[in-house]
């Protein structure tokens, strides 16, 4: 009797070969075969741009070319991460976008310098430079194994692609980017602390020099009126009338101070009503357009309000504009603000009009601040803030 399969002897023939590779094995093989052409393109790109940039460093073209090459390397890295996620099932996040340069008058030069210092671009350059010899090895070994060592190909593919996974995680992951962002947030925290301290000093000064001084004069005036009430009623009545005027002025200054801290209309009715109230006090005719289906977090709302408020104060004090416009809208997870006027222009971040302070405040919350104000006008200031829902803020506060 022929033995059962469980009792197969050495003399029995082996079962026929089958294509028993799983889906992941085929994806790994495809990755290894594509390595060579992809690596060749990346290597040629890196060598060409680095050689050309180095050759042109004696001219004004070399530096911008290197900056553009590093921006291009970021795009190559994005494609490589996408390929690794699709074929190798590597979980690697995308690095954060390169931040815009906000300070100084040389915007293009500052932005190019930030691109040249970008660690993500340089690590991608290194990755693409190393890939060519590795791509040749993986392509050759995989092709050979397909025809010569087919049974062990899954093990070979897994070993080679594990090296690819390590390269992707080591050079294309955003770990260093996160460290840079942490350093930026540490610096921004100092800006926030300094800004808060300056605001407290301003409130103290306004109280001391404004409402407090008026209330002291009011108390003195009422005391004198009390003394003269019996001997000179007319003089006492005049003093009371003057004290009444002082009370009105003190109340107005307290309202203005409270509005400077956080206006009630902003809390109750949102940005549309609050910005319309600010616009009504501007010397120029201001058109306010707020296109928001929901409200952002209170902190973001407050920053947006004070940004527009200070920009409209600059319009009144410095621009000589007849008309201005305020536009507020949401774009994905960002709150965008644009304030424009038809004034004389010439506004700068270092012009002493508080623009630099606004840029620092927005930068402290991962925002952006861009000024476009050629001499002769018009002026357009664009601010961008992270959108945070009020529900998210409530959850964080628990």
Entry keywords:
398 residues, alpha+beta, Single alpha-helices involved in coiled-coils or other helix-helix interfaces, Heat Shock Protein 90, 3 domains, 5-stranded mixed β-sheet, 12 helices, 5 strands, elongated, disordered C terminus
Overall mean pLDDT: 78
Which residues sit in consecutive blocks of at least 5 with pLDDT less than 50? 1-10, 101-106, 391-398
- Helicity, in percent? 55-70%
Structural class by sheet pairing and helices: alpha+beta
Q: Number of domains in the coordinates?
A: 3
**Secondary-structure element order, N to C:** HHHHHHHHHEHEEHEEH
Q: Distance between termini? A: 76 Å
Shape: elongated
Biggest beta sheet summary = 5 strands, mixed
Report strand order across the widest sheet: 1-2-3-5-4
Strand composition percent: 5-15%
Please give the count of helices.
12
According to DSSP, the number of beta strands is 5
Q: How large, in whole angstroms, is the Cα Rg?
A: 34 Å
Can I get a quick summary?
With 398 residues, this protein is of the alpha+beta class.
Explained architecture:
Residues 1-10, 101-106 and 391-398 have low confidence and may be disordered. The termini are far apart. α10 (298-319) links the parallel β1 and β2. The protein has helices at 23-55, 62-88, 107-116, 119-147, 153-172, 175-228, 233-261, 264-269, 271-280, 298-319, 355-364, 390-397, and strands at 285-291, 323-331, 334-341, 368-372, 379-386. It is of the alpha+beta class. The protein folds into three domains: 23-173, no CATH class; 189-261, Up-down Bundle (Single alpha-helices involved in coiled-coils or other helix-helix interfaces), CATH 1.20.5.1930; 265-397, Heat Shock Protein 90 (2-Layer Sandwich). Helix content is 65%, strand content 9%.
């Amino acid at each position: 009797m022929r033995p059962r399969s469980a009792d197969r002897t050495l003399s029995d023939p082996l079962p026929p070969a089958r294509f028993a590779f799983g889906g992941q094995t085929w994806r790994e093989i495809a990755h290894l075969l594509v390595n060579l052409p992809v690596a060749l393109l990346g290597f040629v790109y890196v060598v060409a741009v680095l050689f050309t940039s180095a050759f042109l460093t004696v001219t004004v073209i070399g530096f911008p070319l290197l900056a553009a090459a590093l921006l291009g390397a970021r795009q190559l890295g994005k494609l490589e991460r996408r390929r690794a996620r699709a074929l190798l099932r590597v979980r690697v996040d995308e690095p954060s976008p390169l931040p815009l340069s906000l300070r100084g008058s040389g915007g293009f030069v500052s932005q190019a310098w930030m691109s040249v210092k970008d660690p993500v671009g340089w690590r991608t350059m290194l990755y693409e430079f190393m890939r060519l010899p590795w791509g040749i090895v993986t392509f050759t070994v995989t092709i050979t194994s397909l025809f010569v060592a087919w049974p062990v190909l899954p093990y070979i593919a897994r070993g080679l692609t594990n090296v690819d996974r390590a390269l992707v995680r080591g050079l294309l992951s955003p770990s260093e980017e996160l460290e840079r962002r942490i350093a930026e947030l540490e610096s921004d925290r100092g800006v926030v602390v300094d800004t808060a301290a300056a605001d407290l000093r301003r409130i103290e000064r306004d109280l001391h020099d404004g409402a407090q001084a008026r209330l002291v004069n009011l108390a003195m005036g009422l005391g004198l009126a009390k003394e003269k009430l019996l001997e000179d009623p007319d003089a006492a009545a005049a003093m009371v009338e003057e004290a009444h005027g002082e009370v009105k002025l003190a109340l107005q200054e307290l309202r203005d101070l409270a509005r400077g801290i956080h206006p009630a209309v902003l809390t109750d009715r949102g940005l549309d009503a609050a910005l319309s109230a600010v616009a009504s006090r501007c010397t120029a005719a201001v058109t306010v357009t707020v296109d928001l289906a929901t409200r952002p977090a209170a902190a973001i709302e407050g920053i947006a309000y004070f940004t527009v408020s200070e920009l409209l104060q600059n319009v009144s004090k410095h621009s000589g504009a007849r008309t201005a416009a305020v536009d507020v809208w949401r774009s994905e997870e960002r709150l965008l603000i644009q304030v424009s006027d038809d004034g004389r222009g010439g506004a700068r971040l270092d012009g002493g009009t508080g623009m630099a302070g606004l840029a620092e405040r927005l930068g402290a919350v991962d925002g952006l601040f861009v000024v476009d104000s050629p001499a002769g006008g018009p002026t357009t200031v664009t601010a961008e803030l992270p959108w945070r829902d009020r529900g998210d803020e409530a959850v964080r506060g628990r």
